[in-house]
Amino acid sequence: MTDLTFLALATVTVASSILALEARDLVYGAAALGIAFLGMAGLFFLLDASYVAAFQIAVYIGAVVVLILFTVMLVGPQLGEPPLELKRLSLLAAILLSLLLGTAGAVSSASAFPGPDNCGSGCDLVGLSNALINQYGVQLEFLSLVLAAAVIGALTLAKTETKAE
Amino acid sequence: MEPLTSFFAVSVILLGIGIYGLTTKRNAIRILFSVELIYNAANLNIIAFARLRNPPIVTGQVLVLFTIALAAMEASVGLAIIMLVSRLNVDIDLRKLTRLRG
Amino acid sequence: MGNPIIDLLTSTYFLEIAVFPGLLSIAILGALLGWMERKLTARVQLRVGPLYASPAGGILQMFADIIKLLFKELTIPDGADRFFFIMSPVTALIIGAALLGLIPFAPGIQIANIEVGLPVFLAIVTLSPTIVLLAGWSANSKFPFIGGLRALFQQTAYEIPLWLSTLGVVIVTGTLSLTGIIEYQQNSGWLIVPQLLGAFLFLVTSTAEMERLPFDLPEAESEIMMGWQAEYPGPLFMLAQGPAFVKLYAFSALFTTIYLGGYLGPAPIPPIVWFFLKTILIITLIMLFRSTFPRVRLDQLLRQGWTTLLTLSIANIIIAYFLVVGIPAI
User: Fold this and answer.
1) Inter-chain contact C130–A65, Cβ cutoff 8 Å?
2) Best A4, A40, A84, A119 residue to mutate vs chain B (most B CBs within 10 Å)
3) Computed over its alpha carbons, how large is the radius of gyration of chain A?
4) What share of chain B is helix, strand, coil (3-state, %, to 5)?
5) B49-99: per-residue pLDDT in tens?
């Protein structure tokens, strides 16, 4: 059961991430990217990280993909990407690199990493929230500061333009 | 439970796709896609490795929550820059975008 | 014995997905909600409303409408993006139906009882602005695109107070699972009493998420003629109308679950009847908004969302904090 689900999710994720980069229309690319993120959320579910999966759907698809779509529609079609001389070479390089890394990992692990079947306390929601607040509270505060800075920065970038017009 | 190696394999393939996009694409939005894919590959790797410990640890999930938030910020600032550039320059081809060159 | 197809078709899991609380019941209830809305609005405006489609006050009117729409010609506008044009309403309907899989209708009657039911519900809700934006863009026409952009602004702005208002419930109950929230209410009473402000905020923001009056700017038929649905031909228009009713049903069910004790109620009446009584009460309330309030303007909507509702939902979190910790003696 899990094997089949995993295979389906992995195929969807990989195929739609390739489509995201190769689709001619950027809107299709952004939609494919959204589907890749959904597949990734499914993989997180399989790893018992269900809260992270919900967060992934909400942030990536609810915010990032919508923002990308909005930008694409505003910027307009950017067609005509001429094929680079380097393109096929680096495609080959990337595939070779990933296969090499993958096989090296698989071989070095010998009989694969089985991982404990029952995640137990390691995937516990209470444990996660305790760690997030008690252990990493300061980092969380810094993260929110960075978030505020990013929002202000993005707003400033968008705002100066309307003033100049 | 699927052996964790399969998750690592998916992560590696996504990393490969992301690097391919970074090296061959010229459109700024496509490059942003590639960066997001690499982020996702890293997230999957971190969560899978957190399961590798026996008993599993929760720190991996905390780290991934932080990464997701950071990726969202990066996307928002990046897209704001792309929007600005497209209004000033009409072209978001990163290889032609040499305005800051002295 | 042993025929896997028959085994699958009669298994509880399949029946739950296909019949109740799954797809078939969602379709029938969606159609009935359409009738109910028209009848109710008509009664408020001192009209009669649907009358002829059956002896019982035109209760089959929506089914007659569906049959009529199904036989209309399927035209796709020139220059439209065919893939997204057709896929968007279908996907929106699937997303709406997926929401109902997370709701516990009665003890044991729940398709997916997961530990993080509440965030997953809200996360699925956040998918819908993407779909609406794509639907509006794909029609390659002005009004649909304006409608899609309005839906984007409105739904992303109101998602934040929606999440924050349900956070109060999570703080009080200490669980993210919808079943867990109901179990808490079994011991401590309905959460609408301590979380009155949160319930109010949830009702307002979910009305905005559903794009219903007074927040129906994305489809405002008197301004931009049904907004993102303007170009849809008959059968697809029917599909595009569906998600509105399915979301109404799902949000009312979620409100019932987290604030009104879900299926809990005195014994002689079975839990499922309690659940539907409360849900229909909430649905009626939301439908009465439609005939009571005028539509807000876009700038009013966004300003209220980003200032008033956000402030109130943070205040609600503070209330929930003091409910858990206790009011400090000064």
Assistant:
1) yes
2) A40
3) 20
4) 75, 0, 25
5) 887 776 777 888 888 889 998 888 888 888 888 887 777 766 667 767 666
Q: Of C129, C159, C176, which has the smallest distance from its Cβ to A125's Cβ?
A: C176
**What residues of A are in contact with residue C156 (Cβ under 8 Å)?**
62-63, 66
Prediction ipTM score = 0.84
Residue A50 Cα, gap to closest chain C Cα (Å): 7
- Give the distance from residue C126's alpha carbon to the nearest chain A alpha carbon, in angstroms: 5
With cut-offs at 50, 70 and 90, classify the pLDDT of residue C172. Answer: confident
Mean of pLDDT values over C179-199: 83
Q: In chain C, what are the domain boundaries?
A: 75-325
pLDDT, residue A165, reads 43
If one counts every other C-beta atom within 10 angstroms of the C-beta of residue A89, the result is 12
Q: Which domains does chain B have, with CATH numbers?
A: 4-89 (1.10.287.3510)
Cβ contact (<8 Å) for B27 and A143?
no
Q: Do A58 and C126 touch (CB under 8 A)?
A: yes
Q: What angle do CA B28, B30, B35 make, to 5 degrees?
A: 95
d(CA B28, CA C259): 46
Q: What is the pLDDT of residues C198-213, one digit of tens each?
A: 888 898 898 888 888 7
> Which two tokens mark C264?
């809990």
CATH topology of domain A1-78: Four Helix Bundle (Hemerythrin (Met), subunit A) (1.20.120)
Measured distance CA(B72)–CA(C126) in Å, rounded:
15
Question: How many contacts does A have with C, using Cβ atoms within 8 A?
Answer: 63
Domain residue spans in chain A? Answer: 1-78, 122-165
> Which residue of chain C has the CA closest to A65?
C130
What is the secondary structure of C108-125 as a DSSP string?
TB-S---TTHHHHHHHHH
Q: Kindly state the tokens that stand for C241.
A: 């109308």
pLDDT at C178 over 80: yes
CB-CB contact of C130 with A61 (8 Å): yes
